[in-house]
Amino acid sequence: MKQLHIIVCVYIAVCSLVGFIAMCIDKSAACKGQYRIPERTLFTIAGIGGALGVLSGMYVLKHKTRHLKFTIGIPLLLVLNAAAVFLVFCFL
User: Fold this and answer.
1) Distance separating alpha carbons of residues 77 and 74, to the nearest angstrom
2) Is-contact 62 55, C-beta < 8 A?
3) What are the distances in angstroms from CA 3 to CA 26, 61, 85?
4) Among candidate residues 25, 80, 15, the one with its CA nearest the CA of residue 53
5) Positive or negative: CA dihedral 38, 41, 46, 47
6) Which residues of the chain have pLDDT under 70?
7) pTM of model > 0.85
């Protein structure tokens, strides 16, 4: 495997972990009535490669699953993340 492929895999894994942790923190804050992570931040994390983690957090934690922009937007970002990884693996 090329070194670039390894870097991309590690990058996606780290972004996904950050996305999942962000959803955990936001869910905990929501339950406690504390300051929340802005939705824009969650979408940014998903957009830069953490969509799998954010989506996993949504369904594991049952958080933001009633929000249409999350139930449509995050899977769409996951498809875009997967397409970007596919392009890197095929053409670089």
Assistant:
1) 5
2) no
3) 34, 34, 14
4) 15
5) positive
6) 1
7) yes
